[in-house]
Amino acid sequence: MGNFKNAVISFLAPLPSIIFYLTFLHQFKTETSSLSPLWLWCSNHPIILANVFFFFNVNVLFWVIGTIQCSHWMIDLYWTVIPVLLVHYYGTHPYGFTDQWRSTMVILLTWLWSIRLTHSYFRREKWQWGAREDWRFFDLRAQYGKHWWWASFFAVYVSQQVFLIGICLPMYAIHSVEKQWNVWDVLATLVCILGIVIAYYADTQLHKFVTTNNTLKQLGSPAILTLETGLWQYSRHPNYFGEQLWWWGLALFGWNVGHGWTFVGALVNSLTLAYVTILVERRMLKQEERADAYKMYQKTTSVWIPWFKFSARETTKDKTT
């Protein structure tokens, strides 16, 4: 019953913004010469309007729902949905100018990225809606204690607004400039696709590793201590590397239309993933049964960018110094 309830909540949650925006588009098309001050403002400020939607519909509404349910699970799910909503928002906003090829390609790529990440999310959560919240939120809940009810508004939601709106700015850029499709768009497309493919296979290999270990645990057999096969043989976090490629490829689209400043979103994403990498590896090292094996894995395997294993000689030298 709880699974169905959370599914319904998820589908209903973004409706206030969607209904308001569709109403605005209808008014713009039917009353262009006599727009009210509200609709005129909406037509002249696409980025500010996107932030208004995010603040009230995500920050406030999602926070209220999460506080009532004592679990801020929904923002994790909507990480896969909000970029899709934003790319369609920028693509249909009356303020925009664009090359149809570039717009169509970025929309298709965003859908492909979203489907990949949504599938990974539900596969990891065993196809449950809201079964648990992100482990980082769980840790923060314990850290803030009785103050978490209000601190979560800033730590979980306001921070996500800055991050998500910022990282999706290339979607605005490509829908604000009319420039013909060129070779840089082809390169950006290839980078995005490569990132999606790498992230998909990395997540699939990680899921298989976790599933195998769960089976071994049920059978009373020793677990596999470290995932060192497939892409994980060449990178300790190939899923993060693939995700970064996707966002940097998207930023390349923005740069190509003269909005190089949109790289800031991809840069912040990379810096954030660097911090998350540190947190993840600390958690691994806290597991006594895996600590020694993971330390060796750290010494012989690249952090993000896939590369060949470091030589045993280098590892031995590092251990003796």
Automatic annotation (TrEMBL):
GO CC annotation terms, alphabetical: membrane
Protein name per the record: Steroid 5-alpha reductase C-terminal domain-containing protein
TM segment ranges: 6-25, 46-65, 71-91, 148-169, 181-202, 260-280
PANTHER family: 3-OXO-5-ALPHA-STEROID 4-DEHYDROGENASE, 3-OXO-5-ALPHA-STEROID 4-DEHYDROGENASE (DUF1295)
UniProt entry keywords in alphabetical sequence: Membrane, Transmembrane, Transmembrane helix
Coiled-coil stretches noted in the UniProt entry, renumbered to this chain: none
InterPro entries, A to Z: UstE-like (IPR010721)
Xref: PROSITE patterns: S5A_REDUCTASE (PS50244)
One Pfam family of this chain: DUF1295
